[in-house]
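name: query_chain
kind: protein
chains: 1
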Amino acid sequence: MCALTPRLAAIAALLTPGQTAADIGADHAQLSIYLALKNVAPRVIIGELGTGPLERALRAVAAYGLQSRIEVRQGDGLRVLAPGEVANVILAGLGGDTLARMLAADWEKAASFPNYVFQPMSKPEVLRQALADRGWQIVSETVVEERGRLYLVLTSHPGMQPYQLSDIEIAVGPRILQAETEIKRQYIWRILQAWLRIESRLRSSTQAENRRQAEIIRERIQRLEEIWHANQGK
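structure:
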């Protein structure tokens, strides 16, 4: 099969090897097939809600003769799994708000799976807040570039002690802010540029609430700029 894209390769690298995995929303099943062929996971469960994606996954698995290693199930989110059935759960390619709702549908069942790899396409701040509120540790945040776009891949383990994240940590990511790699600094820079554009739009408004929001964003920009400059020499 073809090599994985950088985004999918980053997800695969963050799984606990040798343990079962569930790929929720696998679509063409490329990642699941890779995990089986490379023996990263002895068994993979694919979960798809829509009939079209389900049929595509079934065809892809059959094309590689992996029906004994990869099971394709139809259902919504984690509902396709029994409690504790897998060690790794992959939730990728959806918005952070959607990922948070999937977990919130049954936090008790969600906590029975020890390792999560999330790849939110948008609104990662919603996912981070949900994880912190439930006491799930954000173990790592990885940034990968693919076709000129930066993607965030986040790992988390279930916990029981809620904790606080600052507004900057929620918006940017507690591990991203450590900025130990150039690509993470690029990620911070792009967030800064987006905030500057939002601030400019809000300041051009005549509404008092928009101007108040502009001041809040300005304060965040200043703090993030300080972090950015502090990490430039690393």
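note: The CA atoms of residues 167 and 220 lie 8 Å apart.
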